[in-house]
Amino acid sequence: MRTIPITAAFALLLLMSSATARSEEQIGFERDVLPILRVNCISCHKPGKAKGGLDLTTLPSLMKGGHAGPSIKAGDPLHSRLIETIEGETPEMPKDGEALTASEIELLTRWVAQGALVGPPVEMSTKHPRQPLIYQSLPSVNAMAFSPDGALLAVPGRHEILLHKADGTGIAARLPGDSPRLEAVAFSKDGSLLVASGGAVSEFGEIQIWDVVARRLVRSIKASNDSFYGLSISPDNRRVAVGCADKLVRVFDIADGNEVMRCDNHLDWVFGTAFSNDGRRLVTVSRDKAAKLIDIATGHLIDDVNQPRDPLLCLARHPLEELVATGGTEGKIRLFKMEPRGGRLAEGDNKENSFVREFEHMGAPILTMAFKADGSLIACGASSGEVRVFRVDNGQRLAQFKVPHGAVFAMAFSADGKQLATGGADGRIRFHETEKWSVSREFESVPTTSGSSLP
Fold first, then answer.
1. pTM (two decimals)
2. Residue 28: which of 103, 93, 91, 121 has the closest Cα?
3. CA–CA gap between residue 114 and residue 18 (Å, rounded)
4. Three-state SS for 336?
5. DSSP letter, residue 373
6. What is the pLDDT of residues 215-267, one digit of tens each?
7. Distance (Å, whole) CA 440 – CA 106
């Protein structure tokens, strides 16, 4: 039960009455303050949704304040707006949530009184289980990717990536990581790297970069305060792009993990990214219905790709040509060129100079798409469990079938193009032969108590 909020003055009395050792204990922003803000405040005060112009996700942005001025007067909690808004019988903040507890207000007050310091560094403790999981139930399959050499199929589990043998006969390796949920996986073109994106909801976004041969985590890049989606790797293996739940698009340098680009042109979650062949431009799609072409060097919007029609949920890049396919709640694949169309879309402007082709209507939201390695076919999976496969050059439907037990969230063509793997809500992976589109193999995505094989 939460207690009645107290005033800053009373919080100072609590501070003065504390034991000397406790009074001298240094309060840190990341270790002590940020967890309180994350639970109570950051949902409304973060990049992409900074109400009142206030971003509370970092110490510099907190100190800067918002439209009402600086949030903190270091050393003076009685005249710091952060404390003023959370204390009293009817506190101004949180706007729609429960008031902070007396202990939370007292800690924030002490922190400001100490000078609002960064505090001691926070060592990132591993969040993944010490021992490999034996699953009691199957998690949904959110993503999958075949390695270019045709040897492996990467599938996220909980706090891990499972490397299945590409023929579906067993698990070759398990790669544990901090993120409880990974939303996307991709191999680099040369197969040397496996990159995954995901995170922990309302806590952090993470990109994991793995050395495939050594089965070693090369780098973990954590940023934002929410999950990452729709990753893509630049053709030269130097950069990785992600879409974010905070409405931003980010590009990171793989070698050092530094953020090299950030774009804030989307108005909602960004679910897909795709690099151009020269690595200089990026196409992104969002739930705000927009597909955009971005200049990576500057982070500026070059052009609109589409005429907004429906919330976009997935993006697939042609493996050879400068083409991207979009899919969303409308239930249609739409194919576009990755090039400027000649001017931003204005209200009432229906021009789509980069538009190439629209495929047959699915009748349900499209959640995932995949191109065959030679670019000749594209497959899509829907929330209804239906899968369709089309020729890219003319839009002809080649196959239509339904996967049992729920939505299809992930799919990938094998390197040789002879199999289409699908996964979804039931946690099982199915291989479909591309000649007859019948199921050639079906297996669980993770080891369970029912006896799935371990590496």
1. 0.77
2. 121
3. 14
4. strand
5. T
6. 999 999 998 878 999 999 999 999 999 999 989 999 999 999 999 999 999 99
7. 62
